[in-house]
Amino acid sequence: MPKKEGSILIVDDNKDLLLALKLYLNPHFEKIVTEHNPNRIKEHLSKHAFDIVLLDMNFKTGINNGNEGLFWMNEIKQADSEMAVVFITGYSDVELAVRTIKKGAADFIEKSWDERKILSTLLSVYQLQKSKKSITQLKKKQQHLKECINDQQDVFMGNSEAIQQITKVVQKVAPTDVNVLILGENGTGKEVMARHIHHLSDRRDEIFVAVDLGAIHENLFESELFGHKKGAFTDAKEDRTGRFELASGGTLFLDEIGNLSLAAQAKLLAALQNREITPVGGTHPIKVDIRLICATNMPLEKMVAEGSFREDLLYRINTISVELPSLRNRKEDIPGLAHFFLNKQSDKYKKGKMSFTADAIELMQDQAWPGNIRELQHIIEKAVILADDTTIDKDDLFLSVNNNKALDENHFNLIDHEKLLIEKAIRNCKGNMSKAAKKLGINRSTLYDKIKKYDL
């Protein structure tokens, strides 16, 4: 016998009809709730998640204009705009029922009690609702994929011994569904590694959803991760799908997890333990199937000892941990990374085939790189934008030749660096400010502000 699916709320003032419909439909649907008082419709909708409301068109004796049914359908639609409403109508009201379909009803059944017609109508409406929900969810995932396009194969991890050891671990862990915690300084490529793990997993064809927890305000944590229902709070103008639900079937990457407050940690832990979430303003939990990857640059074990991070949450997210080394501790990877970024940026800015001089590579390997791989990438992008030809020399990188000092000595002066970039852009564009601004990736008014700021 096929598994029963779907839930129906039946509202009619005829209690005998309610009982008959419940007995008849019970073998075919998972949940059947009956109600003779339409004033309790919203109460039922707040307690249970229904797929269909089967609604009488007329509740008062002698009145058959259908206005009551339309009123209650509008009330239902206000509570849930996607709810399917099927009207129960007398034979003489068929024409009226057809008109109500134009006003938003899904279908109607007659009180003449044609069992096959009743069942086929409700099953058809349920399957249509199920398809609509699947399509809506798919569209949301596709939109998210468009926003997060990233060619998983277009990565360079490095060839250093440290990276090779990490790669061996990742290749063993990725095909499983175990939770992974990625540690490392800012800019070491934690999200790139998370995406790499996803690409190597059995979920590679499903969605990868990245969330920067450090950028989410405490008050919006639940709404962002678990979603919310329309009207849950002042700015909740429509239903919102949370990141957990969006990532269901795929991988959820929670970056900067060490930034969460203890209250947010408790809510996250509950969701991970139960594998279900409840949207803000919702009453029904939603099951989720995610592969969890977290990342942080913070010392979580020390935070546990200090009481600022939950030990049980750390155990939950830390089945396998991977620590990415800083760029200054794997300088042998710099030439490969530099060429990888050079090829990407030269393609992006249509500069043709470009290369580094040996002096440029040597200078990059002499840097301390406090911003790690992210800083290297940005330096190369700027060099490509401002390059006069297809060869990048050490002077094109705007890097200090004496940059082997400790990180706390402020060896990298960002103001001087920006000033030099602006001067070179203006010089290369022969004073054409519009071209210089475009080359720098800023608008002309911003360029004039910086010229004034640096007295150029």
From TrEMBL:
Key word ATP-binding present in the record?
yes
Task: Outline the extent of the Response regulatory domain.
Answer: 7-126
Q: Which PROSITE patterns match?
A: RESPONSE_REGULATORY (PS50110), SIGMA54_INTERACT_2 (PS00676), SIGMA54_INTERACT_3 (PS00688), SIGMA54_INTERACT_4 (PS50045)
Enumerate the spans annotated as Sigma-54 factor interaction domain. Answer: 156-385
4-aspartylphosphate, modified sites:
56
What does the UniProt keyword field contain? Answer: ATP-binding, DNA-binding, Nucleotide-binding, Phosphoprotein, Transcription, Transcription regulation
Q: Which Pfam families match?
A: AAA_lid_14, HTH_8, Response_reg, Sigma54_activat
Residue spans making up a coiled coil are: none
Q: Does the keyword Nucleotidyltransferase apply?
A: no
The name this protein goes by in its record = Sigma-54-dependent Fis family transcriptional regulator
- Organism of provenance: Carboxylicivirga linearis
